[in-house]
């Protein structure tokens, strides 16, 4: 069963939280509201695609600094900033920090809805990419030490004969290991295996 997307609203104004909750539920998304960043951090988030609507002006830590703290802690939920006191420099800082939108109050409901859809889709893609990478790492962990060595040699473009000479193995042994690697990694071709090796070694962030 696919979990329903969740929008997290962090705003110290109770009337704003209530209005946004009604709007978000009207587009069939779940919503959780918080009056302060600490409340959000203490909440056990469901395993579902989501995004954050974050007020820039919060008591204590401001929204932009809180967003930076989230990123540093590994929470990569897309953020939509809202503010009643926005200015150009602040919006530039927000976008540079990775926000997907910066809306000044009062804003059009449709603008926020559009931003929410962008945020949810972005998180959905991020979550899928993370799952693919996790599965790839799990398959790589099943390889023996020799198989990992040969996988990386093959992915670097070296032919079997050269790999065999470098590792002091027979060419037949290299071919056997190579078949095992292709099977365990579920690689459909050499190109597929090269892409997997690049991802595992961090040379390619795309999945």
Description:
By secondary structure, this protein is α/β, with parallel strands linked by helices. It has two domains: 6-132, Response regulator (Rossmann fold, 3-Layer(aba) Sandwich); 142-200, Arc Repressor Mutant, subunit A (Orthogonal Bundle). Helices cover 56% and strands 12% of the residues. The chain contains nine helices and five strands, in the order βαβαβαβαβααααα. It has helices at residues 14-26, 37-41, 63-72, 88-96, 109-141, 145-155, 160-167, 171-185, 190-200, and strands spanning 6-10, 30-34, 50-55, 79-83, 101-104. A five-stranded parallel beta sheet has the order 2-1-3-4-5, sandwiched between helices. Helix 1 (14-26) links the parallel strand 1 (6-10) and strand 2. Helix 6 crosses helix 8 (171-185), helix 6 (145-155) packs across helix 9 (190-200) and helix 7 packs across helix 8 (171-185). The longest helix has 33 residues, at 109-141. It is elongated.
Strand order of the largest sheet: 2-1-3-4-5
Question: In what range is the share of β-strand residues?
Answer: 5-15%
Major sheet size, sense and barrel closure: 5 strands, parallel
Name the average pLDDT.
Answer: 88
- Give the distance, in angstroms, between the N- and C-terminal Cα atoms: 24 Å
Indicate the CATH architecture of the largest domain. 3-Layer(aba) Sandwich
Count of separate structural domains: 2
């Amino acid at each position: 069963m696919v979990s329903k997307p969740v929008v997290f609203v962090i705003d110290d104004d109770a009337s704003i939280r209530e209005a946004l909750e009604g709007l978000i539920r009207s587009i069939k998304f779940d919503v959780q509201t918080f009056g302060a960043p600490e409340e959000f951090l203490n909440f056990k988030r469901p395993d579902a695609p989501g995004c954050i609507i974050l007020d820039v002006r919060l008591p204590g830590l401001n929204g932009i600094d809180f967003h930076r703290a989230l990123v540093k802690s590994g929470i990569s939920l897309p953020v939509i900033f809202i503010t009643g006191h926005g200015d150009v420099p602040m919006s530039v800082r927000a976008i540079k920090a990775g926000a997907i939108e910066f809306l000044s109050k009062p804003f059009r409901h449709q603008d926020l809805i559009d931003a929410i859809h962008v945020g949810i889709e972005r998180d959905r893609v991020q979550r899928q990419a993370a799952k693919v990478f996790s599965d790839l790492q799990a398959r790589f962990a099943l390889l023996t030490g020799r198989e990992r060595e040969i996988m990386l040699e093959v992915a670097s473009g070296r032919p079997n004969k050269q790999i065999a000479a470098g590792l002091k193995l027979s060419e037949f042994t290299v071919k056997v290991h190579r078949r095992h690697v292709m099977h365990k990694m579920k690689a459909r071709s050499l190109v597929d295996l090269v892409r997997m090796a690049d991802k595992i070694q961090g040379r390619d962030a795309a999945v």
